[in-house]
Write a structure and sequence with these properties.
single chain, Rossmann fold, GMP Synthetase, Chain A, domain 3, nine-stranded mixed β-sheet, 27% helix
């Protein structure tokens, strides 16, 4: 293990944390026992205390056990937008000793069918607006194994925040069991008996190289992140946490749901991203912690009259998924007085393995390995370990690492490499660490563009293009070229759609800001970039 990062390690924090002896579900049990009257969830004018959350979790677990016949290690798909029912269902599945299969509500019927069939899920808990997708997926799941939730049931009558229209639309009632009926049955589940090494959750990877693969996590690997997060980012018991990221995705799930449940903090939950609503919640509820993504922060800072809101309660803002442009980070610091704390993780690592130290963060940086994480750089072909400032593949060994790809032994074996007898997960990301132990992202291994034998890393070019005054977003891809093998193409979104950006002026600007072989030889201007269900740009589609 390289220990260069110990020089910038946060003061008063240990290098290692003891593993939790309990299951993830026990985090809710403990908070409900110790802080029953504390508000666990605020959702558009309605509050649920930790006592309420625990009681409803028990009732849904009872329904799963007695009506849907869910037993130990059975998989239950959770196909829902951000809502109190998502949180309740998540912990109810665990309470019933079953395994969660979260599915992004943006997934359509074909994507849904793949995940449900691949995971062999025995039941689906879903938002009622998604019923047609389930029907179109032609899944062989009976009525008692389908449980439909209506989000509006958990909104208040006098919300100070604008309720999204999607929550108030009246839809035909699905011809299956309803959430309300499941609660009214007042059923009990078998005793919870999960241990740290039992199965907990199977989130599916984004599928950039074929069909999404299930990442099998145990209660131990999920808890490793849950317990590390508050220590590193300073979330104290009883904090106010804004949840805008999708809870079906590991970052939102871990930071904005599981962390506040562990710390008996309040989740201020948003179903739909709305910059003005977020600003109002921060001001009115004195929000202290918020995890976001780059595009969300750009949108937030672009809000008209953002300066008029009192954002002084914020203690920490951060995120990952894409590098924060320097100009955006500078504006955020000027407006709020905080650094944007960038982090790095994957579905296979159940959110972050790296976070920037709060006392000395760096911009456009993956941060440093957190508690018990051993991250190294290897040459991708030979797997020879590299040193500081040498670019190679990022590999890591950590308690957050998944147990393997669900029912895919070949993919699991290919995902790991042994270094001096220790197994490391191959992230497929290219990067390096500097002399202080900070890690930096260069690009995805499969995204490299080869121009006359010279390597072009699209993320590097994209970072430069984001400084162009006319460009708000950019994605760089490689096109075939008969002379050079490949050439660089830039797909961009303009700040002002009515502005004219000629290819000649664009190439001239690039020539002044990057090496000649990196210059995009083609300019493709679009209204928006294609994005996947997790919000990431689908560069392969371009």
């Amino acid at each position: 293990m390289q220990r260069k990062h110990y020089g910038v390690w946060p003061k008063n924090l240990p290098y290692s944390l003891p593993a939790s002896p309990d299951s993830v579900y026990k985090n809710l049990v403990n908070s409900a026992k110790n802080c029953p009257s504390t508000v666990a969830i605020k959702f558009y004018g309605k509050d649920l205390t930790f006592y309420d959350l625990y009681q409803e979790t028990q009732l849904i677990a009872g329904y799963l056990f007695q009506i849907s016949s869910i037993r130990e290690n059975d998989r239950v798909a959770l196909y829902m937008q951000n809502s109190p029912q998502f949180v309740i269902a998540y912990y109810a599945i665990l309470a019933a000793n079953a395994v969660i299969v979260p599915i992004n509500p943006m997934c359509k019927s074909a994507e849904l069918a793949h995940i449900v069939n691949d995971s062999q899920s025995k039941a689906i808990i879903f938002g009622d607006e998604l019923y047609n997708e389930i029907i179109n997926a032609n899944l062989k799941i009976g009525e008692r194994q389908l449980l439909a939730a209506t989000y509006h049931d958990y909104t208040g009558k006098c919300s100070d925040i604008e309720i999204p229209a999607s929550l108030t639309i009246k839809r035909p009632t699905p011809t299956c069991s309803s959430w309300r009926t499941a609660l009214e049955l007042n059923l009990s589940a078998a005793d919870h008996n999960r241990t740290p090494d039992d199965w907990c959750i199977i989130p599916y990877s984004s599928g950039t190289t074929g069909q999404p693969k299930g990442c099998l996590h145990t209660h131990r690997s999920v808890n490793a992140t849950i317990f590390a997060y508050p220590r590193w980012v300073g979330v104290k018991n009883g904090s106010q946490v804004l949840a805008t990221l999708p809870l079906c995705h590991v970052t939102g799930m871990q930071h904005s749901m599981n962390l506040p449940i562990l710390t008996a903090s309040t989740i201020h939950l948003m179903t739909r991203w709305n910059a003005q609503a977020a600003a109002e919640i921060i001001e009115n509820e004195k929000i202290q912690h918020w995890r976001s993504i780059t595009t969300t922060m750009i949108d937030f800072l672009s809000l008209k009259n953002i300066e008029k809101y009192d954002l002084s309660s914020l203690e920490a803002i951060g995120g990952g998924g894409a590098q924060m442009p320097e100009s955006v980070a500078e504006r955020m610091e000027k407006l709020i007085g905080l650094d944007y704390i960038e982090a790095y993780g994957l579905t296979e690592t159940m959110a972050p393995i790296h976070i920037n130290p709060v006392n000395s963060p760096r911009r456009q940086c993956l941060g440093i390995p957190i508690f018990d994480v051993d991250t190294r750089i290897i040459e991708p072909q030979s797997c020879h370990e590299l040193g500081p400032n040498e670019i190679g593949e990022i590999v890591t060994s950590a308690p957050q690492i998944f147990a393997g790809y669900w029912q895919n032994e070949e993919a699991t074996n290919n995902a790991f490499v042994s270094i001096n007898g220790k197994d490391f997960f191959r992230t497929g990301d290219i990067g390096y660490y500097d002399d202080d132990g900070y890690f930096y992202f260069v690009d995805r291994l499969k995204r490299m563009i080869n121009v006359s034998g010279l390597k072009v890393w699209p993320a590097e070019v994209e970072a430069i293009l984001h400084s162009h005054p006319a460009i708000s977003e950019a994605c760089v891809v490689g096109d075939p070229d008969p002379r050079t093998g490949e050439r660089v193409r830039a797909v961009v979104v303009l700040v002002d759609p009515l502005e004219v950006l000629t290819e000649d002026s664009f190439i001239d600007w690039c020539g002044k800001n990057m090496a000649n072989y990196k210059i995009p030889r083609n300019l493709d201007i679009r209204k928006e970039l294609p994005r996947g269900t997790a919000g990431k740009v689908l560069w392969k589609n371009l």
